[in-house]
Amino acid sequence: MTQVLLGTKNPGKIAEALDILSGLPGIRWRTHPDCPFADVEETGSTFLENALLKATAIGRETGLPVLSEDAGLEVPALGGEPGVRSARYSGEPVDVPRNNALLLERLSGADDRQARFVAVAALWLPDGQAFVCSGVLHGRIAESPRGCGGFGYDPLFVPAGAAKTLAEMTLAEKNAISHRRRAIGRMRAILADLLASGELSGG
Ligand code: IMP
């Protein structure tokens, strides 16, 4: 069995990733806190940079193949904001209702309320190889928050073709279409290929 470490400390993300990645024969998934690692500062200016930064740093620290992910919201009418600053859009400490209020304030009166969630998954191998996959969920920002499921900007995000916000959907409904599912789902195919070639186990 080849061990691969999930490079996140967020229990929700761990559960979602394991659900998407289940059934890949030959991989034993390792997770925090059973396999501990230090926090990595997200100093990159893109989701891609931050996902690779985390996978590389945690991989070098633990010596294991690492799968990391970075995600956020992009609003074209705001020049792509909040982007990589999604978690801390309205400043420190992280405050989700304040972030959502700031987003609504900045979009007040705007005709163009298009938005997209972006996720980038990065896989780093001890031999130095790295792989990245993206996933996008298109939608628009509602006029006011609705629903109490999910997290972050979910009460404000209405996926394209849907009437409900992500926070009004069940977890299964959200996970079936999410940016994160798309990014990690694509990485699943790469992992299967690396397993077949023996590269994941260093062969
Ligand atoms: P992270 O780096 O993947 O934890 O995401 C950074 C921030 O982006 C989160 O704190 C949220 O504000 C926002 N975000 C990312 N994915 C989602 C999502 O699926 N729903 C709502 N907000 C999200």
Biggest β-sheet strands, sense, barrel: 6 strands, mixed
Radius of gyration: 18 Å
Number of helices: 5
CATH architecture: Alpha-Beta Complex
Principal-axes geometry comes out as elongated
Q: Which cofactor or ligand species appear?
A: inosinic acid
pLDDT averaged residue by residue: 95
As for the CATH topology, it is: Maf protein
Return the string of H and E elements.
Answer: EHEHEHEEEHH
Low-confidence segments, given as residue ranges, are none
Strand content: 15-25%
The percentage helix is: 25-40%
Sequence of strands across the biggest β-sheet: 2-1-3-4-5-6
Summing up helix and strand content along with how strands pair, one would put the structural category as: alpha/beta
**Distance N terminus to C terminus?**
13 Å
Q: What is the count of β-strands?
A: 6
CATH top level label? Alpha Beta
Number of domains: 1
Describe the secondary structure blueprint for this structure.
Blueprint: E1 2-6, H1 11-21, E2 27-30, H2 47-62, E3 66-74, H3 96-106, E4 114-124, E5 130-141, E6 157-159, H4 171-177, H5 179-197
Parallel strand pairs: 1-2, 1-3
Antiparallel strand pairs: 3-4, 4-5, 5-6
This protein binds inosinic acid.
The site of inosinic acid has 13 residues, from β3.
Brief characterization of the structure:
The protein has about 200 residues and is α/β, with parallel strands linked by helices. It has helices spanning about 10-20, 45-60, 95-105, 170-175, 180-195; strands at about 1-5, 25-30, 65-75, 115-125, 130-140, 155-160.
